[in-house]
Amino acid sequence: MSAHIVLLPGDGIGPEVMAVAKRIVDAAASLADLKIQCSTELIGGAAIDATGVPLPETSATACRQADAVLLGAVGGPQWHAQEIAKRPEGGLLQLRALLGTFANLRPVKPHAATIDASPLKPALLHNVDIMVVRELTGGIYFGDKTEGDTHAADVCEYTADEIARTVRVAGRLARQRDGKVTSVDKSNVLATSRLWRRVCNEVIADEFPDVTLEHLLVDAAAMHLLSRPAQFDVLVTENMFGDILTDEASMLAGSMGLLPSASLGEQRTEHGLVGLYEPIHGSAPDIAGQGIANPCGMIASVAMMFRYSFGAANLAASIESAIAAALNDGIATPDLGGTNTTAQMGEAIVSHLV
Ligand code: IPM
Ligand code: MG
Predict the structure, then answer these.
(1) How far, in Å, CA of 207 to CA of 285, rounded?
(2) Separation of 243 CA from ligand 1 center, angstroms?
(3) Which atom in ligand 1 lies closest to the alpha carbon of residue 93?
(4) pLDDT digits (tens, 9 = 90+) for 136-183
(5) Average pLDDT for residues 119-128, to the nearest whole number?
């Protein structure tokens, strides 16, 4: 198999974790005898500084033609004073829309070796294995915005189709897991949430009668994620609730730096789904340039790329085992209470890759 991927290092710690991701891509590809060609493009603040816009046409075109896209992080305090379309984050939103990657998969599964890094009691964390499916190209992120000195508005809109296709992704994943979907909304207040709940009920009843469905209001879900995290299987929710709940859920694993994500749509290549893969952490300007960022979330995103875009589930599992093995050896970056560097963590993972 030969494939082409675009690397978008972005801002802050993005380039640091991307350098390690590239090592993993090369090591994994040579193990499995895959030909993977990488090209690097600009996004975010780095793109604004070089070209004036957060997603230049050359980057957009390269991503549109790629089999998969790997992204580090975007954003930083120096680019804050702009409207969203001109900010680094705007480039990422444009890219998600451009690729049509409406379903964002964020798995949360604590590693045995880093249980103590979580602020939660270890007893609560046993058997935690959650797959969050976050709707990624609709809702309040993409609705009309008005911003004045004394009045501002963000419109939240959803169509039944946007909801149904996201719920289908959750239903299919639940079938491969424990057969349970928890849908999170705010249907006691929001019209979009009432539509969300109705469509969710219909899709699961009609197409996934074998899947168990429960509904939670988002405020209750935030609490249940801390009080009974092991009882979740697949959690599906709209864009902004998913953004917030996955940062919260990352603390079950102990550090945001551990968590990967895959953004998928319906577009396919001969190898699998076209996807955008990024760790859920941000650009972390406070530690950028120090070489101490945790690369595990980025590397686990590479694993997801092999699984969903290249149909190489074995290779994905090997990368995930290598991360677990390095953590078991006690290799840890400062966010996990350790003293290892990004590069040391990366090399430890490469050394376990078989
Ligand atoms: C995420 C991030 C982004 C989001 C930002 C950088 C726009 O927080 O991927 O969770 O809100 O979607
Ligand atoms: Mg976020």
Answers:
(1) 45
(2) 6
(3) 7
(4) 999 999 999 999 999 999 999 999 999 999 999 999 999 999 999 999
(5) 96
C-alpha 95/C-alpha 232 separation (Å) is 30
Burial classification of residue 124, based on how many CB atoms lie within 10 Å of its CB (0-12 exposed, 13-18 middle, 19 or more buried): middle
**What ligand is nearest to the CA atom of residue 240?**
1
Q: Look at the chain and count its residues.
A: 354
Tell me the pLDDT tens digit for each residue of 11-21: 999 999 999 99
Per-residue pLDDT tens over the stretch 66-107: 999 999 999 999 998 778 888 999 999 999 999 999 999 999
**Nearest Cα to 3, choosing from 28, 31, 35?**
35
- Nearest partner of 130 among 279, 230, 255, judged by Cα: 230
Quote the CA–CA distance of 246 and 222 in Å, as a whole number: 10
Residue among 232, 204, 208, 211 at smallest CA distance from 220: 232
- Those residues whose C-beta lies under 8 Å from the C-beta of residue 224, and which sit 6 or more positions away, are 216, 231, 232
**Hey, which residues are catalytic here?**
141, 186, 219, 243, 247
* CA–CA gap between residue 74 and residue 48 (Å, rounded): 11
Fill in the amino acid letter for 67: D
